[in-house]
Amino acid sequence: MQRRLIWSILCLWAVFSITAATRAAEPVKVGILGIDNFGSVAYTEFLNRPHAEGVFEGVRVVAAYPIGSDDYPDSANLVSQWKKQLLQMYQSPKDPKDAVPPIEMVDSVDELLKRCDAVMIYSMDGRLHLPQATAVLKAGKRLFISRPLASNPADAVAILKLSQETKTPCWSSSQHRYSTGFSGMRNHPEVGRVLGCDVYGGYAVNAPEADKFTRPLHSIETLYTIMGPGVATVSCTSTPTAESMTLVWKDGRLATYRGIKDGAVKYSATVFGDKGVSTAGIYGHGVPVKGVVPTDDKYVGYEGLAIEIAKFLKGGPPPVSAEETLEIFAVMQAAEDSKAQSGAVVPLKKLWRE
To answer: What is the model's pTM?
Structure first.
């Protein structure tokens, strides 16, 4: 009798172990909502790699809702282009062992949510992000929203407030935040403690209406990557050739942003520290050594952010806090307010008081 009981327990334990191992082997199923942003293709290429290893193991895009925006320029053409690439991705390997399950295209948000554990939003039109995020967060699905989080501060607050209310993790970021040429400047041995920086990047004069408020976002995220949060005041001057912001931190540090409207465009910065002054790396490349910016090293454009997305989708915490994200939106709003006041210094407002 005792032997039979022990044998039954061992059999149950074996069944439980096999079931648990099977569940552990199942990838986190990810859905893409909106595909007219190239990021829908770029990040899926990392997440769906055949025989993925390391951080990309155990997560896979399984479905997409190929929606665009009726009034975003060229959205329909981009949806068609990226849909084709997503459907063909890793579908014709030379070795059959490298085959990857195809991505399923669905025709509604509800159908997408049925098929996935987590969602990435890649709609170019930031005005769509609040209603899209609302459906995802109310369904309790972890959510990454490609830059921008929203097209205006009110929508940004609403999304992150709903994330808190539903206890569903959500975040957004520019890929520039994880370019090593920028992130590596925060503790650069030739710079030391960062006292300030001058960041520069493109500022599209003829940006679509949906993008106008968030035009500085890539470069402002670069600035935060190097300086960290804590801005107290912003002033902004606008001319036909440039958008110029001056930001003062609560601890007295100062930084500037130059949005290039006319002439050559490059995304980088000059960083000032207690040990030295150095140019930053340029987007996609590593940190400078003795002032020399590497350009023949491995190009890392989307990979840095892809790593952070994968860690998050598998259960990690959002790597960029809601507080920092909303502070960035407050900076951009303060810049607009400053321009309306002929370049006056504008104190930063807290967008959301709990």
So the answer is: 0.90
